[in-house]
Amino acid sequence: MTRFISILVLFALYHTPIYADKLLKNGFLNTKMDYAKEQNINDPKNKIILIYNHGQDKHDARSKNCVWKNGIRNFSSIVGEKVNGKEIMVYLLCTDNFAGDDKRLWNKKKFKPPYKGKPKLEKRLDANLELIDSFVSKGVPNSQIIMTGHSCGGWLTMMLMSRYPDKVGGGISLMQACYGKLSKNYKVKKVGVEKALEKFRKKDGDGPADMRQKQLDEIKKSKNLPVLVFTHPKDPFDGLLSDWVEEIPGIKRIIISENKKINGKSCSRIGINNGKEWKEPLNNYHIIDMADCFQQFNSDILNYIASRTK
To answer: In the chain, is it the N or the C terminus that has fewer CB atoms within a 10 Å radius of its CB?
Structure first.
């Protein structure tokens, strides 16, 4: 009886209007911030597939999170565009259902290196590799698959491309970050990057600090990393810790702006709630890539895709 009631509660929860506006499964998207009716890849040789990886709320817990519809609106807007005679498809990969990292890693009193187990980010990377192979098996050339992602998904994009440079044609990283609001919480603007990271290590412990540095070092060893990277200096996560990307050959970095405007246009979030469109001013720089003003970079994104999928 208890189990039956739990199932009813879950059913009701995920069928309320608020969850109806959230995308919680894998699939190709349409231009309306929703899943496309056609999920097959027709004429694969003439398709360009963007694999979108969402951010990651928690490191050490299982959660049911992917993206709100408004979060994918800008990539949905380029679905169906043609580049070099090939049509763009966008595939949403929801991987937040994986078990999180061992909780000891995020508890500095209990953590004793080396870290045991497979970190959540590595599980997400494996899921991307499997998805890429499945697309290739259907006839899509590796060179016509583009990795992309926001926040932890952006960090993951650079990790995968640095490790497997021939698996995909390119990558687009948006506001890369995976270890919390480092820029804001540790006052990078005031104390500098080095002292801020020392504070991060002291507060969160060696586990997260060592893992972040190890991943960063691996990415920076790349001799050529053809990734388009978007950052903003006021992003509370890694906003002021992003200069390292320019040390890597092949990366093209675009600093979005210095404020909440792009080319003089104020940024707003636009989405769907209960089936109705809503609009509100942007209040978080970390998600400026999801705002309406960010579509001014669509030409840069399309030009980048064209340069990688000739």
So the answer is: N
Round to whole Å and give the CA distance between 268 and 291: 5
- As a whole number, the mean pLDDT across the chain is 91
Quote the number of domains for the chain. 1
How far apart CA 64 and CA 197 sit, in angstroms, is 30
Rounded percentage of the chain residues whose pLDDT exceeds 90: 79
The CATH number given to whatever domain includes residue 220 is: 3.40.50.1820
Domain extent at residue 31: 2-308
What distance in Å separates the CA atoms of residue 211 and residue 101, rounded to the nearest whole number? 11
The reported pTM is: 0.92
State the pLDDT at residue 7.
40
DSSP assignment string, 48-112: EEEEEE---S-SSS-----EEGGGGHHHHTTTT-EETTEEEEEEEE--TTS----GGGG-TTT--
- Is 90 exceeded by the pLDDT of residue 2? no
Q: What is the pLDDT of residues 189-200, one digit of tens each?
A: 999 999 999 999
